[in-house]
Amino acid sequence: MTDINLANNLWVVICALLIFSMPVSVGLLEIGELGKRYSRSLLKTLLIIGCALFVMAIIGFNIAFAPTTGGLIGNPLYGPGLFLGGFSSNATGMLNGVWWSTGPSYFATDLSTGTYFLFEAASAAVTLALVGVVVLRKMKLEAFLAYSVVYFVVIWTLPAAWIWNPTGWLYQMGVRDFAGGLLVHAAAGAAGLAIVYRIWREEKRKGLKASTVVPVDVNPTWLALAMILLWVGWFGFNPGSVLAMNSSATTVVLTTFLSGATCLLSVAFFRRVVLKGSPDLLYASNGILMGLIVITPMAGFVSPAGAIVIGVIAGPLYLAAERWFLKQRWFTDPVSLFPAHFVGGVFGLMMIAFFTQSAFAGASGNSNLPSGLLFGGGTAALNQLGLEALATVVVLAAVFAMTYVALEVIARAMGGITTDYEKEQID
Amino acid sequence: MTDINLANNLWVVICALLIFSMPVSVGLLEIGELGKRYSRSLLKTLLIIGCALFVMAIIGFNIAFAPTTGGLIGNPLYGPGLFLGGFSSNATGMLNGVWWSTGPSYFATDLSTGTYFLFEAASAAVTLALVGVVVLRKMKLEAFLAYSVVYFVVIWTLPAAWIWNPTGWLYQMGVRDFAGGLLVHAAAGAAGLAIVYRIWREEKRKGLKASTVVPVDVNPTWLALAMILLWVGWFGFNPGSVLAMNSSATTVVLTTFLSGATCLLSVAFFRRVVLKGSPDLLYASNGILMGLIVITPMAGFVSPAGAIVIGVIAGPLYLAAERWFLKQRWFTDPVSLFPAHFVGGVFGLMMIAFFTQSAFAGASGNSNLPSGLLFGGGTAALNQLGLEALATVVVLAAVFAMTYVALEVIARAMGGITTDYEKEQID
Amino acid sequence: MTDINLANNLWVVICALLIFSMPVSVGLLEIGELGKRYSRSLLKTLLIIGCALFVMAIIGFNIAFAPTTGGLIGNPLYGPGLFLGGFSSNATGMLNGVWWSTGPSYFATDLSTGTYFLFEAASAAVTLALVGVVVLRKMKLEAFLAYSVVYFVVIWTLPAAWIWNPTGWLYQMGVRDFAGGLLVHAAAGAAGLAIVYRIWREEKRKGLKASTVVPVDVNPTWLALAMILLWVGWFGFNPGSVLAMNSSATTVVLTTFLSGATCLLSVAFFRRVVLKGSPDLLYASNGILMGLIVITPMAGFVSPAGAIVIGVIAGPLYLAAERWFLKQRWFTDPVSLFPAHFVGGVFGLMMIAFFTQSAFAGASGNSNLPSGLLFGGGTAALNQLGLEALATVVVLAAVFAMTYVALEVIARAMGGITTDYEKEQID
Lengths: 427, 427, 427
What we know:
Three copies of one chain form a homotrimer. By secondary structure, chain A is mostly helical. Helix content of chain A is about 65%, strand content about 0%. At the A-C interface, α1, α9, α10, α11 and α12 of A face α1, α2, α3 and α4 of C.
């Protein structure tokens, strides 16, 4: 009946399940940082999960991962076709054989459709959950839901087709983004930026001089629970992104966890010693997140010692970025989408060209990736830096533009995307 | 030392662990829907877990899964015997060989006793946790605990021996219930019905005209946490029920998750567009649960597209059932045991005869199951429908009767099973 | 690329992840038992995790698990060397070959460094989290953090080198401690004792006649959540300690879960019937914990029936120990470090010499361990009892002494380790 690789499927489907739990954890993170007044975020994250599975199953999964036309867009009718193979029991990767993009000619990890779909649909869901932290109580839930559908049809899927699909044009050029520094974290930042910009345009029209500020109001138990759930979820995100069970997968456990731990200590240290602040639960949490974000795009390319160095650097980077973004008055970002995910994602992606060691990259299935500048990569590494920068510009511009256009259409249909949350009856 | 199948054991024991966490998640669901006043439910669910493991180990596991006498009851002294093999290190399935009911002559999945016991004992525990949502603050904890012992000796185990034990009389006739639409969800409903009927008899004697109503009082954070824990737990329930790691197991991930996601959207849509209500967190949660319940008895028999269709149908079914049950005045069911688990479980079981595709059923180890009416099953499918209906009547009647008799005995011994929760000192 | 055993690595790395979540669960346990006033415990547990991963990666892991000098201390520069192999991609157990202490010449389970490191670093973290439950709001966070660094360099690692490292002097003598009855639970008690003694010295100097009492203030939802997370985490702790996926690993699932379940019922029964108390959530939780603790040092050595007997005995033992410790006035232990972890850990270790069945011990990789006195072990069992007693005295004395000296140094540097929590501004 089956040609799938059991160890690889066991590994990746369990990792997929961990990722699947992350959107709700992001909802709990919002409440942990902003208080129970923001509990409607939980409905938002459940709806995101429902939309992600449904829309990705119908069309999104194929747009991202089926063979592409010109490297630009996957064939929505390919192989299993719409509805993940519909009623067919002969669909590739379902009961017979393996799903194409991971088949022998590409990554050769022999994952089944069930495994690979849950992994990628869950990743898409958590990306939109990150975008959603800027929604707060400012945006209509219906407007966000309409945006979600567009998001899982094209906004998440097209950049994925370009970089994670082995027939994508950026992948073919040599761009690599291990577990989504660009495609998840920075892209979430770009979409969030378009949302806060659109919100600001409506707030300005109402006569506001600065965007309504949402104060941080830490709820320690929910924040701590969200943090450990997210950290555990990241085990799915990064080690799972090897898409196979092998020694590289367990090495990615090391690089991921060491960067998170080190950045926690780095943020606490710099905040205490340099800024004379208190290393409280909020900064500890953001330190962990920053460390995990920064390592995400290169977790499979670097050594454990490399991950520790990255974690140390990420600490002051976060504190500086947070300070810079706090000065902006036209948007509100109390859950740190921009200083953590946006800045951390882009920074991590650039560091690929510095910290990569080709032996580690090869082991995780990226044998074409050259070593970084710090490990004798020379001009090949400089070339990689250029590629990653190109990908960053292209993807962030595309995500921002598609989001803005979608919001514009939705705003016209619904009479604006914002709502006066003080007058709302709904929690 | 070992003859067990490592991939199958890895898969099923991890799924078993996920199911093991579900009773407490049901306790948190009660609090998420009814408020912290119901926190004694948490003690109840911990005691259920303790009882399930202890009683099933001593005798219940063999009554359900050892070779049966006449297809009716497993031999309590078989093989490993009482206490899961007692002090013997040669017990089948312990360190040597495989546990009989999954051995070469039956399902051939080569699970060890440790794996299979945890899987089934956890399933039994979560079934009683579902029953327990009607207990509220109305029933004495001691009475429920006494009932629990009876439950794990005969009430859960006998129907399991009939349908899940390959020597059971209903299994031999051809009845199939993939992961427990009947044996878990509908059976929980039947037991719950006997409990609310017995409570009503005592309430009537106290002069009440209608059962004391417990208002819904949503606690968003605990409700959302319970939901994600239950959804993750269902990954254990359904995909784990293949009892093996293969491509069918990963396909069941698809059918299960797509039905849950689709029904969430279906409930939200119908509630908003048809009923003009608000798609709030409570309905989103119940939508997910309904989708997961309905797919449970057939998750291994249907295609992904079949699961999506099922999820769409389940939405309005839940809304209609909820409305109907709300009109009844002689019982109180604020956590939706009847409209979700009872109705959804029975409906899902019947749908086996409509949506089954034999290729999927065969892959999950049920090669004798004919395709459903929608897939050319014809008279074989009609015959299957009759079998499932017969099993439903037999199991629900048996569970209701055994529960009612047990409660009658307990009530006589303890002077009634109800208690005046308003005067209680204990939380 | 790889020589690792996939099934064993899959099993152990997933178990490691479960253990990794436990320190925060211990933090939630503190809040579940003491109320939200103690939410600073959550910052403490996150810092413990960060320190554990960072310090163990730099030096602690090698001190515990690299080949020892004279059986006393691992070579900090061995093999992968500092920083888990630093920037080397040829480090043993990283991408090539297997980590030494589990290699062919020793346990032969072929774990990679990533897998084994996460397993042991997480175990170290949870041990310190247990120590930390006596810190309450009495000890300066900085002082505890300084102690944490010392802890992961020598206090946790040296005893581990003696007993869990196959070249350690106590291991070579024949001492066995399956998953840490001594090295985790009792050792946490010894370190906690040194901390409360040091706190008491400072409290006495302030003129107190008895240590400031912290009342129990149960928060049911967080307590129940912490309990289920800890129980699930224990699945990592005990079954994972086989360090392999085989039938013994699944048998350890049985022994562990049956002891926890039985002790829950035992505590509830003795408290209700003998002490005429209420079997409330707090006692249910402590019953589960006691059962899990007591079985920890011997989970891989005993039969399921043995585990049930142990669980029954552990119940009254806990109730008696709790009563005894409550009478002491010079320290405060509201989360039961001493009656549960200290007493339960030592008791469980001694019971190795009574309940071990050599067939089970051999299957879990401990073929030199003789059967216990109850299973015909005779003089070999008596000898084992002596060995375990020796190890207990040596390890507890060493942990107490190292902790006390470390605190003395820290107290001098920081002007005492205690703080007046009533006047604190920080939560």
